[in-house]
Amino acid sequence: MLPPAHQAVEAYDLDRLRIHLDLGDNVDTQHHGRTLLHHAIDIEHARHSSGEPLNATITAFLLARGANGHRPTPRFPSPIAHAADLGHWLAVELIRAATHPDLHQIN
After folding, report:
1. Number of folded domains that form the chain
2. Which helix (H) or strand (E) holds 30?
3. Which whole-number Å values give the CA distances from 69 to 18, 51, 83, in the listed order?
4. 6-22: b or e for each residue (b if 16 or more CB lie within 10 Å)?
5. Smallest Cα–Cα separation from 86: which of 52, 51, 57, 43?
6. Looking at residue 103, what is its pLDDT?
7. C-alpha to C-alpha distance for 15 and 45, rounded to whole angstroms
8. Which Gene3D superfamilies does the protein's record reference (predicted)?
9. Nearest Cα residue to 33 out of 78, 89, 94
10. Tens digit of pLDDT for each residue in 49-100?
């Protein structure tokens, strides 16, 4: 059974995910080797593949809450590599921006 925060990601329920994180769930928690960020990237990619517009709301929220986009797990590559493998370019850009915000400044 999926832990509650993963259930919220699966349902694409941002409000419920926020509540779980506010109550102390770890933003980098894993379920079967997949972090919330891996899970969000998978769900967003699946929704886009089924014809919905590309969306990265959950990914952006998790990054804003401090999710690590560069740490692999024993079963999965880093979330940024996972997003790149899936072609989820928006998640890749968000992870890059969250990690190196100075690289995206306009002078």
Report:
1. 1
2. strand 30-31
3. 18, 26, 10
4. bbbbeeeeeeebeebbe
5. 43
6. 56
7. 20
8. Ankyrin repeat-containing domain
9. 78
10. 999 999 999 999 999 999 999 999 999 999 999 999 999 999 999 999 998 7
Name residue, tokens 């699946």.
Answer: 46
**Would you give the distance in Å from CA 63 to the centre of its chain?**
7
Q: Which amino acid is at 17?
A: L
Q: For the domain that residue 77 is a member of, what is the CATH number? A: 1.25.40.20
| pTM of the complete model | 0.91
Q: Would you state the structure tokens that stand for residue 58, as one six-digit string?
A: 């959950």
| Residue 42 to residue 101: CA distance in whole angstroms | 24
Give residue 85's domain range. Answer: 4-104
Q: How far is CA 52 from CA 43, 45, 46, 56, 57, in A?
A: 11, 9, 9, 12, 13
| Residue at token pair 């926020």 | 18
42 token code pair: 């998978």
